Structures are given as C-alpha cells and as structure tokens.
C-alpha cells in the first residue's frame, strides 16, 4: 500500500499522457516514464512537477469512468501549471479524466489496484476483485 498527502488546490486526475503538449511536454512525459520504469511510484517529482503516479492493476482500459491508455493514473496539482507550455488541460474538459478542487489537504491511497483520492474519488483498476 502507498499513501501520500497532498495540499489543497486544483488537480488533474487521469492518464498523464492526456495533458502533455509539444516537444517540452514530450520530454516531460518521457522523464515520467523513466522514473516510473525505474520503480518510482507513488509521490514523485519530475522536472518541478509533483505528482502521484501508479500503474493500474489491469493495464489499459476504462475504470470507473477513467480512461487509461498508458497503464497509469496520475494525480497532478495544476494550479501553477496552467501557463506551462508542457501542458494542455483543454479547458478542464478531457473525456475519461477529472478535474477537482480540494479545499483542504487530502490523502491518496493506492492498494492492490484501488486508488482512493481524498474522500471524493475511488478508482478500482483491479477488475478481478
């Protein structure tokens, strides 16, 4: 089980590959994959962006309305990234993802394919349970 506490703010929840743009975004997501495939999961920081990242239990698919094409789900605070050239949050309207504002610090728990994000969001990626 992995746990992390994140500060209040506006967050993107979904496949991290859905929000990158351009060459700078490509380099950022490549750094994310480098961290990920070297065993860094949970709370990580990549090129100044703190995020929670973990693989879905079943890999790619649709889990509780979240689309996963990279095998991963990320929770990224976006308040300071709205003008960052690496990202395109598409007016907070990306199918199969969620944007949510947390008014207080919140906890993210990953356990055997189950993501619990604050008290609001549960994503079960372990379809065998």
Structure description:
This protein is mainly beta and 129 residues long. The chain has one domain. Helices cover 12% and strands 42% of the residues. The protein is built from 1 helix and 11 strands. The protein has one helix at 22-37, and strands spanning 2-6, 9-14, 42-46, 49-55, 61-63, 66-68, 72-77, 98-102, 106-111, 114-117, 121-124. The strands form 3 sheets. The chain has a 5-stranded antiparallel β-sheet, with helices on one face. Strands 1-9-10-11 form a 4-stranded antiparallel β-sheet, with no helix packed on it. The longest helix is centred in the N-terminal third of the chain and has 16 residues, at 22-37.
- Strand order in the sheet with the most strands: 3-4-7-2-8
Q: Kindly give the count of domains.
A: 1
Give the SSE string.
EEHEEEEEEEEE
Shape: globular
Rg, rounded, reads: 13 Å
Report the mean per-residue pLDDT as an integer.
Answer: 96
Structural class: mainly beta
Uncertain runs are none
Q: Report how far apart the termini are.
A: 16 Å
Biggest β-sheet: count, sense, barrel? 5 strands, antiparallel
Tell me the number of strands. 11
Question: DSSP strand (E) fraction?
Answer: 35-45%
Q: What is the share of helical residues? A: 10-25%
Q: Provide a count of the helices.
A: 1
